[in-house]
């Protein structure tokens, strides 16, 4: 087969009949084919024609996938959340694993909510709140200790007079109170109970 005019970007298949390489057109395959004008369009967002080919581009916030589509570049892997995230309607949102944490100003890391100072914590009267990262717990108040009483744990008053953990004067009597103790100077002595003369 001979092609009198030649086939610039193709092969001669028969008398003056050219078969063009992909990306070229015309009787002698000398014209660049504008793929961007084809239907369906080869690119989802932006298309740029090049000599014998074309290039796809994506709008800001998207990245080019191997099939020419544009996928949101704001995927969980790219946002780099501290504790994982979820994708809702194309938007990525970082998550915090507990109700005691909230997203920090950067939207990626979780910061602790101090339930004790915010008043969200619920502790009974004889327990005090201790904040932890992401939560809190209720600890026995000073002067109370945790004991197993009638089938459950409860904070029970410590009798400092019996356990000898009081700081009363040698010449004073120790009087146990709920959560604490008092000191009273013995007869014949005068003072605060911590000092007796």
TrEMBL record:
GO terms for biological process: cell adhesion; cell differentiation. Its main location: secreted. Gene3D superfamilies: Laminin (2.10.25.10). Transmembrane segments: none annotated. SUPFAM superfamilies: EGF/Laminin (SSF57196), Growth factor receptor domain (SSF57184). It is found in: Secreted, Extracellular space, Extracellular matrix. InterPro entries: EGF, EGF-like_Ca-bd_dom, EGF-type_Asp/Asn_hydroxyl_site, EGF_Ca-bd_CS, Growth_fac_rcpt_cys_sf, Nephronectin_domain, NOTCH1_EGF-like. GO terms for molecular function: calcium ion binding. Residues 32-71, 112-150, 157-195 form the EGF-like domain. Pfam families: EGF_CA. The keyword ATP-binding does not apply. Keywords: Calcium, Cell adhesion, Developmental protein, Differentiation, Disulfide bond, EGF-like domain, Extracellular matrix, Repeat, Secreted, Signal. Belongs to the nephronectin family. This is EGFL6 protein. It comes from Campylorhamphus procurvoides.
